[in-house]
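Task: complex structure prediction.
Instruction: return structure tokens for all chains below.
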Amino acid sequence: MPNRLSDDISGLFKAYSVDQPEYEELSELERYQKVKQKWQGLKATTNPADSFKNTNNENVSITGNKEKP
Amino acid sequence: MKRIVITGIQGGVGATTVAANLTIALHSIEQKAHAIDMNPTNFMRLHFSMDPNNNDGWMLRRYHQEPWQQAGYQNHHQIPFVPFGELTEAQYQQQLTALQQQPMTLLNNISPENKEAESKSDWQIILLPEITSLQNFHRPLLDEADLVICVVRPDIQSYLSLQKNRHYQALHEKHNIKLLMNAFNANSEVSRDLQLVIKHEYQEMIIPTLMHFDTAVPEAVANLTSVLEAAPYSQAAQDYRSFAFWCLTHVNQEIMVTPNV
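Output:
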């Protein structure tokens, strides 16, 4: 009789000695937020696009969204 | 003529390598391109098989009051380039002062005299010094460029320069700069992380072609050649061909959108 699907997956994990069985797929935004907290040099910096949203009402963004005249 | 101006967010990011290999990669896709080295370090010639003991260059010709075009050379594949030249400190300072007093001189010198006769399909690749070393006579070149590229590395120095360097901020306010990420090392955690952060925060400015770190590049330069000629199937050579295609489509698209510019 064939193994149930869950048995197969457990077998695969055992066979490949998975280090992080609780691995979760992260979105790019989640990865970005984790990385910003990982390195001391990045912790105190801000995303220029965010500071633009908070402080600037002009049509020019620091991330390059320049409107052509 | 389509003009691409290349600078670096700081010294050592690989702007010279990018400028030289882009010129050669444009040739590899049947484009006519020439390169002009305006960085006093004068290292572009190493990618074009020029003898390191040869001190000739446009700045030296200028000092001797000779036409700058006489400092034009070709590599083994007939790709034209103009080195900066080696000057003494006194010679260099004299020329620097003269150029600062007449900031339009450089642009006028390298622009075709007969605009009607110039070929619209030709490419001119100009290498400038890093952003912190730009002079007032470089500004007209930036103003007249079809594309301004600033080379950055996925490291904390480049990232902080993008955030805080006043020279970069001033340049960014006046020009529609594109950022090229160079020397990305997939084996390095910090390189992967900084690439993600820079891409996320500067996504509108980032050129989609990522230039990977490849030892074939310094090996090629050590042999006085370009990576496209020394290792045509390397990762770096493939990156440069992709980058050349991106430049081709991007600049042509811009010209089609703004036909009178």
